[in-house]
Amino acid sequence: MKYIRKRIHNNIFMAEFTSKDAQFVVNFFKMSIRDRYLGSILGSLWAILNPALMFGVYTFVFGYVFKSRIPGSETTLSYAIWLISGYGPWLSITESLIASCMSVVAGASLIKNIAFKVEVLPIASALNGIIPLLVSFCFLGVLLIVDRNPPTWHILFLFPIAAIQFLFVISLGLFFSSINVFIRDFGIVLPNLLTMLLFSTPVFYPIISTPQIVQILSLGNPFYLICEAYRQALVFHQIPNIGSLFYTGMVSIVLFFLGLHFFRRISGYFEAML
């Protein structure tokens, strides 16, 4: 009977996203960050320190140890800037997808005891990627100033790029979180799949160094296009490729509605599987 009441409640209210749902998204986001570092001395501060320390290591290794350079650059710091400008968004995407994938299973007690729109769980969890993304922007801002290449007005494009990014990861998160309820191995293997995707996507290396077939495929790869858009706005002070952003945005919108439909179709079976 409780299951039937919950199904009726969801069917009535899933049609629209209310302010109450938005508040639940914010609250669940805060809770997920707090619980992740529960018991540690620094607590949620680790959400900022972890990516900052990682970016610091990359800067030291590639800027001062290997002294790598990108074509046309005058300083060794430029490669570290170029690298982090792509890897920062990638780290954000990874955080979002892994958190979204695990969100429904992690929220089993909420699903069983509270009537709410279950799709807010992967949506709220996808926001976990906001923190490493903001940390990467702040870190890059400092490096760009030190490198005498300060940000320009092109950083205004970061807002639409970020909007497209989170729409994209939320769309995938709806699929991933649904699959993980029925196939728990998916959540375990996902970090490995993302690592494989990272090294097959021109993030750590320039696209011109890859075979022609990889370059062609990359032009249709939303992961690459998002990272490259950030690089164009942040590092090269250029207007990002509007065609690529439009394509990625359309792909994200289509995936979102497909993912939402898929999620809602099978969400009625979640409680039995959790």
Question: What is the strand and helix layout of this fold?
Answer:
Layout: H1 2-13, H2 19-36, H3 46-65, H4 77-106, H5 108-113, H6 120-126, H7 130-146, H8 158-182, H9 185-199, H10 212-218, H11 222-234, H12 242-266, H13 270-273
Helix pairs in contact: 2-6, 3-4, 3-7, 4-6, 4-7, 4-8, 4-9, 4-11, 8-11, 8-12, 11-12
Separate helix tally: 13
- Taken together, the total number of domains comes to 1
Percent of sequence in beta strands: under 5%
Q: Give the strand tally.
A: 0
Query: End-to-end span in angstroms?
Result: 18 Å
- Helix share bin: over 70%
Mean pLDDT: 85
Taking the sheet with the most strands, its summary is:
none
General shape:
globular
Tell me about this structure.
This protein is mainly alpha-helical and 274 residues long. It has one domain (2-273). 73% of the residues lie in helices and 0% in strands. It is built from 13 helices and no strands. Residues 1-15 have low confidence and may be disordered.
